[in-house]
C-alpha cells in the first residue's frame, strides 16, 4: 500500500446491519475444505519466522479490498501472500508458475517440526509489566477517541467518541497501533471499558445490554 | 479434515478448486525455498485437529463447578488457573474467565477479526468469524442467542465482551441443576463449546 491511499479497514463490523442471520454449527467440524488446514499451517509457520508481527498480519487482512467477499481462510491466504510479496520472499511469477523461480531470501528463523508444540504452548504474551503506570483507575469515567486514524487500530468504530467506565486495569500491553506500523512495541496501559447499551446504540438499545472493549490508554481521555 | 460445508453457496465449487490450487502452489514454493518444513506443517494441523479444542475448556469448567477454590482462582487469575491444567499459549496468553449467573449472562465476540481463546476452545467456528455474528453480537445479542435456540429471562443482564486486544475470554456457564454428585469427567461432557462462548448453555444431565 502506498502512503497516498487512505487506510480503510474492511473488518470493523460491530453494529453494522445487513449481514443476515448467524448459522450455528456443531463443535466437531474443524474445517470445510482440505486446503483450509494447509492454509492455517502455512500462515502459522510463516508467522513463526518473525518476518512480521501479529498486528501487521491483522493490518494486511483488514485492508484487503475484497475482505467481505472472501472466506475466512481465503483472507488469511491473501494476507500471507501480500506480506510475503511486500518482503520479496515470494514473487508474482512464482505464484503463477506454482514453483520457485527466484532464490529464497534469508529468514530470521524457520519453525521445525520438533518445535511446534513448544511454540504453540508458549504463544506471544503481550503484557509488559512495569512499562508505564496507568493514568486511569477502576470505576473512572472515560471518553474514547472520536476520530478515525490512518492505520491499524483496535478501537472499533461503534465505540468511538463514547463514554464508558473503567472495569479492569490490565497493566501495560504491546500497543497494537504502533506495533502494526513497525514502530516497536510502545507498551501502553490496557483497560476494559464498559458501555451502557444506550450510549452505543441510542434509546432503542436492547434493555439490560452492556458491552465492553479492551482499550489502550491512547484511545481514552477523562470524561 | 474436509468435512462438507453444510451451507453451500452458488459457485463455491469452482472458487474452492481455485483456492485449493493456490494453496498447493504456495505450499510448494515455500517448501522449495525452505521457509517452511513439511513436518512442522503436519504438526500444526495435528495439534488443532486432535489436541487443542473445546474439550480442554470443558475440563476447566467442570473443575470450576467441582472445586470452589479452583473456581475462585479462575476468576482471579484465569491464565494461571488454566495453565495449571496444561493449557497455555497461542491466542490464550492472557485469559479472563467470566462466570454467568442468574443476574448476568456473558457472551464473547471479536468484532474486528476473530480473537478467541485457542488453548481452551481450539480454532474458532466459522460463525464466530462471520460478518453476521461479529456485526450483531454487540447490538442485538438476544436476537443472536435466539438463532442458537437460547432464550433468557427478559430481566437478565446481557454482558457482551468484545475482544479487541490480546485478552481472551472464557465463559463459565452456570452448572446445570440435577448434576449433584457427578464426577468432573461426567460434568465436562455436559459443557458445550457454545456455552463457553456464551451463545449456548450446557446440556442437561
From TrEMBL, chain A:
Keywords: Lyase. InterPro entries: CN_hydtase_beta-like_N, CN_hydtase_beta_C, CN_hydtase_beta_dom_C, Elect_transpt_acc-like_dom_sf, Nitrile_hydratase_bsu. Transmembrane segments: none annotated. The keyword Ubl conjugation does not apply. It is an enzyme of class 4 (lyase). Belongs to the nitrile hydratase subunit beta family. This is Nitrile hydratase subunit beta. It comes from Ramlibacter monticola.
Automatic annotation (TrEMBL), chain B:
The keyword Metal-binding applies. It comes from the Bacteria. Keywords: Iron, Lyase, Metal-binding. SUPFAM superfamilies: Nitrile hydratase alpha chain (SSF56209). One of its GO terms (molecular function) is nitrile hydratase activity. It catalyses: an aliphatic primary amide = an aliphatic nitrile + H2O. Residues 19-199 form the Nitrile hydratase alpha/Thiocyanate hydrolase gamma domain. InterPro entries: CN_Hdrase_a/SCN_Hdrase_g_sf, CN_Hdrtase_a/SCN_Hdrlase_g, CN_Hdrtase_asu/SCN_Hdrlase_gsu, Nitrile_hydratase_asu. Its EC number is 4.2.1.84. Pfam families: NHase_alpha. Fe(3+) binds at residues 110, 113-115. It is an enzyme of class 4 (lyase). Belongs to the nitrile hydratase subunit alpha family. This is nitrile hydratase. It comes from Ramlibacter monticola.
